[in-house]
Design a protein that fits this description.
402 residues; alpha+beta; Glucose Permease (Domain IIA); 7 helices; 16% strand
Length: 402
């Protein structure tokens, strides 16, 4: 009996941490799934607006490609969740089998105790058993045995009830896990069906772009020119800011200038220390990533270097500062509308495609402070964000919270 109890405690000690890990893993998967579903919903809204207000298949293609990517990640996450659930089901079934074995063993032992007690149920036999003792010591030992027998029966009954209760809990848990697994299997089927529809939509847009190649290449040329103009303008503004800062540092011989330099250095170090943990300026789905890319349809067309990321967002979304800093410039550029440049010591962040601005030049801003409201341009609700280290553009995804 002691060996059985020890085995039970050992099993529980081993199993509990594993189950805890699975719960954490499930929570992480659920959060990822919720985020991807949000992104897909945002992209769907943007595509619906495109269908009403925009004839640009190029933009729609970028949205659909992003949606396909998010859907594939969602399906992979669902498959992973299903795998975790199946593992949990196997673990739970094993626990039920173990508890059932324990319950059967306890019941068998209890039945033997009952039978022994029944055979000696006549109280006279108990008295005779005690009185026939050859010595006081033997009599005390016999009395102890009889009392232990009664106590064992009571303890055994309690253990059986406890094991039965554990069995019920595990059976309910198993039923719940099987229900979750079935729901997840249905979701995977549904998501795969949606993915097929989106791939078909992607192919229709590609055909449309090939069919009206001349028209869409002209649109693409205009967009590329706007992006190149943005790249030149922001690089020029940052150079001007750096020159002004260098000029101030040369003039500064007094304590005030030294203090300003020290503050900038401290801010730069704090910004660097938060790499990978900065908040996103706005919630949305990325449709254009950092770097240089070829056009997905016109393979011979190189797109201008993207110095940031472009996100599809909810209509009227508010853009927020990703870190403490000072607004250094507010400019208006074709295709990007109002753009706000914020200085963070040696770093700069750009918030563009804004309809209205909630800050002014020279104003200090704090992390999470609203910079402006995203504009609807040509029926599209897009936000463009850049992050620079001095005069070198950085991939924002490396800096922002994952």
């Amino acid at each position: 009996m002691r060996k059985l109890l020890y085995s039970l405690l050992l099993t529980l000690c081993v199993c509990l941490p594993v189950q805890g890990q699975k719960k954490t893993s499930m929570k992480t998967l659920e959060n990822q799934r919720a985020q991807l579903e949000k992104e897909i919903a945002t992209l769907n809204r943007q595509l619906a607006q495109n269908a009403k207000n925009s004839s640009e298949a190029i933009s729609s293609l970028a949205l659909v490609r992003s949606k396909i990517s998010a859907r594939e990640k969602l399906i992979a996450g669902c498959d992973q969740t299903l795998h975790v659930l199946n593992d949990s089901i196997r673990t739970c079934q094993g626990e039920i089998d173990r508890l059932q074995d324990r319950h059967d063993t306890l019941s068998l032992y209890y039945a033997r105790l009952i039978r022994g007690s029944y055979k000696n149920r006549d109280s006279r036999l108990w008295y005779m058993y005690l009185l026939s003792s050859e010595s006081l010591g033997q009599g005390l030992r016999r009395f102890g045995y009889l009392r232990s027998l009664s106590s064992q029966m009571s303890e055994q009954a309690v253990k059986i009830q406890e094991t039965q209760a554990q069995l019920e809990v595990e059976r309910e848990r198993l039923s719940a896990l099987k229900g979750q697994a079935e729901t997840m299997r249905k979701k995977v089927v549904q998501e795969r069906s949606s993915l097929q529809s989106e791939e078909a939509e992607h192919n229709r847009l590609v055909d449309r772009l090939h069919k009206d190649r001349k028209k869409y290449q002209q649109q693409l040329k205009e967009k590329n020119q706007q992006k190149e103009a943005l790249n030149r303008k922001i690089a020029d503004l940052i150079r001007q800011q750096q020159k002004a800062a260098a000029s101030q540092a040369k003039k500064g011989k007094g304590g005030a200038k030294t203090t300003s330099t020290e503050i900038d250095s401290k801010l730069s170090n704090e910004f660097t220390a938060n790499k990978g943990r900065l908040p996103w300026p706005v919630e949305g789905a990325i449709i254009e990533r950092f770097g240089k890319h070829k056009h997905p349809v016109y393979q011979n067309v190189d797109l201008p270097h993207n110095n940031g990321v472009t996100l599809a967002v909810k209509r009227g979304a508010q853009a927020k500062a990703v870190f403490n800093g000072t607004v250094t410039q507010i400019v208006v550029l074709p295709g990007y509308n109002q753009c706000v440049l914020v200085n963070h010591g040696a770093y700069f962040t750009l918030y563009s495609k804004l309809k209205s601005v909630a800050v002014k030049v020279g104003q200090k801003v704090t992390t999470g402070q609203v910079v402006g409201t995203v504009d609807t341009i040509a029926g599209e609700d897009l936000f463009h964000f850049e992050l620079w280290n001095g005069s070198t553009p950085q991939n924002p995804e490396n800096w922002l919270r994952r």
